[in-house]
Amino acid sequence: MITTEQREKLRGWFAGRLPDDLFESLAEVTVDREEITVIGRIPEPRLAEGASDAEKEAAVQSRIQEFRERTREDRVAVAREAEHRFRKKVSWGVECGGERALFTHIAAPVMTRLRQPERQVLDTLIAAGVARSRSDALAWCVRLVQRHTDDWLTELRDSLEHVQRVRAQGPDAAPQDTAPQDASADEE
Question: Are residues 47 and 97 in the same domain?
Fold first, then answer.
């Protein structure tokens, strides 16, 4: 987990490095151990007054696809530089017309050991057709928790950031400011 300051520096790096005309605005930069995901807002397509929902949806999807193809070279160049600098893969996405679309992004394997009652939960999801495998069932459970506990997870992340700040001030932390010794004190 990274601190708020590190996250802000990362967001600042992307804001400064991205071409000015790539996005209307930089919506979100998220990071974990494996990946940095950059989401930008792009303009909605202009449609005739009274356009149907189907027309709006098709126009937004087309705009997202057009953006993805047109900006590929610029995004790849920035991603290469960021991957070298931050040692993490970079993924991209956009927000347009109330829709969020992620382009190619990584799915990192996560291993765990489960006791029988926990495995039975996963097996029930498979039997019910909710998931194809235990791995899919576990991912489904994570998405369910994520959807219903955003406030709790946000509070937990904030608490972890506080713990990291306190640790950084502990006795093992490198001194922040070491004042130069007074030369006259050494001469006496």
Answer: yes
